[in-house]
Amino acid sequence: QVQLVESGGGWVQPGGSLRLSCTASGFTFSNYYMSWVRQAPGRAPERIAEINKSGYTPKLADSVKDRFDIDRDNNLNTLWLQMDNLKPEETALYYCERGRRFGDYDGVRGQGTQVTVSS
Fold this sequence. Notes:
Number of helices: 0
Strand content: over 45%
Helix content: under 10%
Largest sheet: 7 strands, mixed
Number of strands: 11
Order of helices and strands: EEEEEEEEEEE
């Protein structure tokens, strides 16, 4: 059974940090690119971070590139998103999604973890 499970979300004050995790099972994790997507209520999903199969080539959206970092460990079947200096407008559901290449994702995603940035 193919599964992606996110964790690590929660409430944080503006300027705070969170580290999200995505654990994969049921498929060969190292064969897939991975990404993090966030969706705020009433807004379209935004893909904010991608990483290639080996983990040596991360890509970050301009909106987060100086504050977030994406990483993976293929031995642990785990993907991470380190988020620093969070802003209130980044309150959203964050989920991971797998793909075949940058920009080409197949819709297999987790349920997501909620991140709330508020004072």
